[in-house]
Design brief:
Blueprint lengths: L3 E3 L2 H13 L4 E6 L5 H13 L2 E6 L9 H6 L4 H8 L6 E3 L3 H5 L17 H4 L3 H16 L3 E5 L3 H13 L5 E5 L19 H6 L2 H14 L4 H15 L3 E9 L13 E9 L2 E9 L3 H5 L4
Parallel strand pairs: 1-4, 2-3, 2-5, 3-4, 5-6
Antiparallel strand pairs: 7-8, 8-9
Length: 292
């Protein structure tokens, strides 16, 4: 089966209609391209769970609050298609900006609560852009299941909330973060790291896992968080935007570890912003796999 590259919503829906009439299940993996092993793990999970898989590729301008970041984001459609072709993906949906938003587009989807704080505080408008494009992709694809990585945990919770609130008939599947052997969470932005920065970057995950272990052992929350922030600065990170413990469902701050939680962080190395998170709470460290 060859990979079909589809550019229009009409063409995508025509294909989906054929699958629907045959009683098939459909999975969608939304991406902005520059595919790496983390994306591929989402695709493989989708292939195992559904009859037909759509991967979307759209660098969404509405979720970038920094024009330079948008301009620098890698665009590698040919390479992405080559990675997907052997896997059995049915369709790569790769619309352009005009197809996605069109002339006079004036609608925005905004999710409060889970979008506030963390990345939401440092990237104004980002999650409105995410929520808007994801809503469109879910409705365009008509998928039964949509697959998102837990690395972007706040984004995952925003998507879950919008699907619940808007009664979109799709099940959101969160998939574990994929890491390099040294613990660095895979990201399309990692290619921007210099050799020196790449050596420092894995310390983000190491510090998070160490903090999670201390929290699991009953250590004081605020003292552990403050020590971890200092550890990131001492490790060579230029700016620590946040390192916080949040409720794993509501993303409200947690002052005492009495429920499942997530330890989330964002920090800069040079011109590259890295984010990561680990579960904390009942079986949190065990489920995450930790770092060896």
């Amino acid at each position: 089966m060859s990979l079909a590259i589809v550019r229009t919503v009409r063409d995508l829906r025509n294909r989906v209609d054929v699958w629907r009439r045959a009683g098939r299940t459909i999975g969608v993996v939304p991406t902005m391209g520059a595919l790496h092993a983390g994306h591929i793990s989402l695709v493989e999970t989708a292939l195992a769970r559904t009859d037909h898989v759509i991967v979307t590729l759209f660098v969404n301008p509405k979720q970038f609050n920094n024009p330079a970041d948008l301009a620098a984001y890698p665009r590698t459609e040919a390479d992405d298609a080559a990675k997907l072709s052997p896997l059995g993906v049915d369709v790569l949906f790769a619309p352009d900006g005009e197809e996605m938003y069109g002339t006079g587009f004036s609608t925005s989807v905004s999710v409060s609560g889970v979008s506030e704080g963390l990345c939401g505080a440092h990237r104004p408008g980002h999650f409105d852009g995410v929520a808007t494009v994801v809503t469109k992709l879910l409705l365009q694809s008509g998928a039964d299941f949509a697959f998102f990585g837990e690395k972007d945990f706040q984004q995952l919770q925003v998507v879950r909330r919008l699907v619940s609130d808007l009664n979109i008939p799709v099940e959101i599947i969160g998939c574990p973060t994929v890491r390099e052997e040294d613990g660095l969470a895979l990201s399309s932005r990692n290619v921007r790291l210099s050799a020196e920065e790449r050596g420092i970057a894995p310390r983000l995950a190491k510090i998070l896992f160490t903090a999670a272990e201390r929290l699991e052992a009953g250590g004081p929350v605020e003292a552990i968080l403050e020590a971890s922030r200092r550890a990131l600065s001492d490790a060579g990170f230029d700016t620590v935007e946040y390192l916080e413990l949040r409720d794993s469902e509501t993303l409200r701050p947690v002052e005492r570890l009495d429920r499942p939680a997530r330890l989330l962080a964002a920090a800069w190395l040079g011109a590259t912003r890295l984010i990561d998170n680990v579960p904390v709470g009942a079986q949190g460290i065990l489920q995450s796999g930790g770092i060896t």
